[in-house]
Design goal:
The protein has 193 residues and is α+β, with helices and mostly antiparallel strands. The chain has helices spanning 19-38, 53-75, 114-119, 167-183, and strands at residues 5-6, 78-81, 85-90, 96-101, 105-111, 121-128, 142-143, 150-151, 154-156, 159-166. Helix 1 (19-38) runs antiparallel to helix 2.
Length: 193
């Protein structure tokens, strides 16, 4: 198991970048059906549709910005698994690097939300002992609270989240990481005690 595994072996699928838009296109028709049903059929009569034009423009802009940010985040995130470390590089403005020894990994989880199940995707979440076990990322890989929640990509605190993997690839990557954890137990000199 001396080979180096990178995101080229287990890539993040581009469909993940457009997750928010696809979810919105599912919700938007439901919203318009609700509006149409409460306006007694007058939605398309005498300029009533013009009233919704600003909403549609703002909605398009609100979807375009997160997709653009996801594209930037994805193009600046790279991971690899070498013999002793999981190596991560991320950051749009401030570049960050992290080398996680396999012996410090305490959990590896494959998560699948509704969107992920529809498209055969999954995300991999890895927990390590660094940073005192604190992270603002929840178990499903989301950061933030309320309306400002977004799916993480990369490392936040003591958790690493790799979304947009094919389900089988996420499971295979999990097994590779768990095997390397067994092969590289933490030594007393690495524990910091």
């Amino acid at each position: 198991m001396d080979e180096i595994i990178t995101e080229k072996n287990y890539p993040i699928r581009n469909i993940w970048l457009f997750k928010q838009i696809l979810v919105a296109f599912i919700i938007l028709p439901i919203y318009f059906i609700f509006i149409f049903s409460t306006s007694n059929g007058a939605l398309f009569a005498s300029g009533a549709l013009i009233m919704f034009l600003p909403f549609i423009l703002i909605f398009g802009l609100a979807l375009g910005i997160p997709v653009f940010i996801n594209v930037l985040r994805r193009s600046n995130f790279h991971y690899s698994l070498d013999q002793h470390f999981m190596v991560l590089h991320q950051g749009i403005i401030s570049k960050q690097n992290r080398n996680v020894p396999y012996g410090r990994i305490q959990g590896v989880f494959v998560n699948q939300g509704l969107f992920d199940r529809i498209f055969g995707l999954a995300s991999l979440t890895i927990e390590d002992f660094s940073d005192g076990g604190r992270s603002s990322m929840d178990a499903s890989g989301y950061v933030g609270s309320g309306k400002s929640r977004h799916e993480a990509l990369g490392f936040v605190g003591s958790k690493i989240h790799i979304p947009g993997l094919k389900k089988g690839e996420a499971e295979a990557l999990k097994e590779i990481i768990l095997q390397r954890v067994k092969e590289n137990p933490i030594e007393d000199s690495q524990s910091g005690l």
